[in-house]
Amino acid sequence: MHLRLRPLALAAVALLAGCATQAPKPAALPDGSHARVAILETTDVHSNVLSYDYYKQREDDTVGYERTATLIRRARAQYPDSFLFDSGDTIQGSVLADYQALVKPVGCGEELGIYRAMDAMGYDGGTAGNHEFNYGLGFLSQVTGTPMNVDGGHSDHCAGPHFPLVLSNVLSARDGQPIFKPWTVVQKDVTVTAPDGSTRKLPLRVGIIGFTPPPILEWDKQNLAGKVTVTGVVEAAQKYLPELQAQHPDLVVAVLHGGLNTAPYTPDMENGGWHLAGVPGIDVVLLGHSHTEFPGPHYKGMQDVDAERGFVRGKPAVMGGFFGKDLGVIDLALQRQGGRWVIDASQTHSEVRPICPAKNDCVPADPVVAPLVRQAHEAAVQYVNTPIGRTTVHLSSYFADEGNMSALAPINAAMRDYVREELPRLHPELAGVPVLSAAAAFRTGFGGPDDYTDVAVGTLTLRSAADLYFYPNTLAAVKVDGAGLKAWLEKSAERFNRIDPAKDGPQELISDRLPGYNFDQIQGDLAYVIDVSQPEGQRITRLTYQGKPVTPGQVFIVATNNYRASGGGNFPGLKGDNIVLAAPDGAREILAKWLQQKQTLAARELPRTSWRFAPLKTRGEVVFKAAAGKQDVAREAGLANIRQLKDNGDGTAEYAIDLSR
Q1: Residue 55: its pLDDT value, please?
Q2: Burial zone of 261 (CB within 10 Å; 0-12 exposed, 13-18 middle, 19+ buried)
Q3: 314 Rama class: left (phi>0) / alpha (psi -120 to 50) / beta
Q4: Phi, psi at 420, each rounded to 5°
Q5: Which of 249-258, 271-280, 410-419, 586-595 has the lowest mean pLDDT?
Q6: Which DSSP state fits 452?
Q7: Which CA distances in Å does 27 have to 30, 191, 335, 482?
Q8: What average pLDDT score do residues 199-216 get?
Q9: Does residue 235 carry a pLDDT above 80?
Q10: Which residues have C-beta within 8 Å of that of residue 511, sequence separation ≥ 6?
Q11: Which of 376, 393, 426 marks a domain boundary?
Q12: HSE-up of 16 (CA within 13 Å, CB side)?
């Protein structure tokens, strides 16, 4: 039965409808109202989903997103009103990541393991770091569920994270548009307390805008050249902030995969966080990339930076560690002033919460995470245990900074042999040019006492190759002259502090200004001496090739990786314009094949150690920190001048090196 409304009834309905649409609006939020909201951040997780060391095949309580998840739950219990963001370098960096990207790539309908874990915790947004691009735009497009109008990009809506990813400074070369949404607005109801003490739930609109390091175009040239363009972070902010502000967010959070650098700004600046914090319209800055904690002592004394309470140029900021070791927390106090929310800096602070506040005192893993990746994890473990040969040499990086090149020699030998074979096909005119190889020890204790390469005598597996070569770089070769070669080595020698022979008391050998992965050690009939008593730029002496002094105009080919050849680390003369070979093969895969071909790796298969310290007698001790209890490893490597001074009780020890021997 259908009822037909008469005109009077229709009028009544219209009147009621009008009343409904004209219902009284909620009273305006009075000035003096306040709210407390936490901004939670993870960054540089590098697909370390589980607390597991794939290289040593054992549990490792000191890393792993499954423990960060516990910190997230605890922070949410403390702060009922919170937002959770990720600042990038998320999908690459572990054996699990490589397995899901390179060995058995996930299909369009399968979500990546790290994203499954993050979805379980309910993120509100994130951005892409530089390592997101390591596997290519096609893979990135697929696993983020982001159709991209770029060469090799996916047009399908594949399974991706259940939270928005924003990135404003990487644009498609086809149409000039960002490959991800440059910004978005996320909204949650938060508890607001009025001046009279009454409370109510009201929506808080948070705008997020994302940024990645501009040098990705050089670092991942083989994946990105001709496909995307990159702009500086400040320029991208200035372009897209007006669009975001037109949506009238209550707060704007910059999600930056980058750290802090107070040097004069340039559009290709790797760590532009300090400058980004100065852009009007940005209220909060989330940092990453540097693998350090902010706030923290590393940033003490930096201009316009409060390294204790966590402010950069007056803006609350945080950088939450790496590898799932920490959670960044900004305790944000909001006050209502002039009809808008403002941050009460006096009641706001940032902190980095570690999963292990002390040795042997780590939070438990969240039980929800491990089952989400169990199948992929077990398959990855089985894969990396595939035997590829044997070694009669102990290959370790415990004392790579002090002259033990055992972990670097196989890499240098494999890359050198590859270039010697491939280069003449591409450049017959270079067939007679000497070939050298440069490698750095990627694992030198930065991540803790277990963060070292250690391949024991015995069976070699694919896990061994991954332990020796940590990153999924491709091989590249560059043409340099003798002067450029020396400049390269001088830059590497910045790894060391200048040692004063006449100084009493201990002096630290290792500088924190140049990370271990930038301490290139070059081999291939080359020999040189590092004099740490000299200033930077004047430390390389007695540089010889095949026993003869290297002349400034002498030509060499140096095998290295795409990161270094394209300008990574800011080495002089390495900007991507002197590359003579850009191999499609990964350096790790080249190493694995080389080890398989050797079957048994003996000392005679490896190039000789190429450098030593200049003899230097010092009044005080020259000291450094390394994993505890490894003095026998030093002796085994021929470093009889190293002795352990004291065990620090946290897995590390202080050692002394006698530079006069």
Answers
A1: 83
A2: middle
A3: left
A4: -60, -35
A5: 586-595
A6: B
A7: 8, 16, 17, 75
A8: 97
A9: yes
A10: 494, 495, 496, 497
A11: 376
A12: 6
- pLDDT at residue 627, as a whole number: 98
CB atoms under 10 Å from CB of 152, counted, come to 13
Mean of pLDDT values over 356-378: 96
SS (H, E, C) 155-180: CCCCCCCCCCEECCCEEECCCCCECC
Predicted confidence band of residue 27 (pLDDT cuts 50, 70, 90):
low
| Distance in angstroms (rounded) separating the CA atoms of residues 587 and 414 | 9
Cα separation, 179 vs 150, in Å, equals: 8
Residues 529 and 616 in one domain: yes
Instruction: Give me the torsion for CA of 595, 601, 605, 606, rounded to 10°.
Output: 80
**End-of-domain residue from the set 376, 397, 421:** 376
Structure tokens of 39?
């901004």
Is the whole model's pTM more than 0.90, yes or no? no
pLDDT of residue 578: 94
The residue ranges of DSSP E strands in 27-156, in sequence order, are: 34-42, 52-53, 58-59, 82-86, 125-126
What's residue 21's pLDDT?
39
Q: Phi and psi of 170, rounded to 5°?
A: -120, 120
Q: Tokens 């803006």 correspond to what residue?
A: 315
Helix (H, G, I), strand (E, B) or coil at 380: helix
The single-letter DSSP state of residue 265 is P
Asked whether the beta carbons of 395 and 97 are under 8 A apart, the reply is no
Could you give the percent of the chain with pLDDT greater than 70? 96
The domain of 430 spans 385-620
- Predicted confidence at residue 589, as pLDDT, reads 86
Q: What is the mean pLDDT of residues 518-524?
A: 97
CATH number assigned to the domain comprising residue 527: 3.90.780.10
**Count of domains forming the chain:** 2
Q: Does 218 share its domain with 278?
A: yes
Task: Report CA-CA distances (Å) from 508 to 183, 451, 498, 623.
Answer: 45, 20, 9, 5
Amino acid identity of residue 659, one-letter, is: L
* Whole-number Å distance between alpha carbons of 493 and 490: 5
HEC per residue, 24-42 = CCCCCCCCCCEEEEEEEEE
79 with 88: CB under 8 angstroms? no
